[in-house]
Specification:
The protein is of the alpha+beta class. The chain contains seven helices and six strands; from the N terminus they run αββββαββααααα. The chain has one domain. A six-stranded antiparallel sheet has the order 1-2-3-4-5-6. Strand 3 and strand 4 form a beta hairpin. Helix 6 packs across helix 7. The termini are far apart.
Amino acid sequence: MNHSRFSILPEPEQLKQQLLTLSALDIILCDTDWLRVYQYDAKWSEQAQLATVSNGAGDNLHIIFVREGVLIKGFDHESPFSPHARDEYGVWPGIYDHVPSALFSYIEQEDALELEDVTFCLWREPGDAEWQAGSIENPAGWDDGFDFLIGYLYQTPEDYAEWAESYYEAEIELDVVKQIYAGSRITAELIGRLNPDRNAAEALAELQQLGVPTS
């Protein structure tokens, strides 16, 4: 497995901030939580925070942040690595090889994370210099969905705004997206500019629970 392709992923703390930003934007643009693509649960458990990216078509990322490191579980339902694509249903050999037990225990114990729905798994422990992955045989060069799913982690305001305009079928004010990407405090005025139909008080309450700067 070529680990160099994982170098496009940001460092863990930067990844966390990116996911918080995307989740904050989705809270503003969509008032129905189960319809959102990006969700971040800062209080998933006493020890762990959970980010979820779900495109509504059966593909998803689950990203767990804990003291012991970060774990990313990705599932592309069209990938040949999917357990549903195998004659004998089950996780593709090697995907979970070498995952530190302290990280693996979080997905192993949580039914909602669907342990077997996985086509790639990455992790970083605090001392790691790069993202790690299991030992997977892939002589046919099959696609595990990594590039497709990581593509949802829009690193620039411009890329996010372009996606959001298409997904939400609405005009997106790029300047507001830029301010939120830059870490500006989110105000009722910014919410109104980005989504005039959104109840600003409800959005601010959710954003405060998320832990992003508001005023």
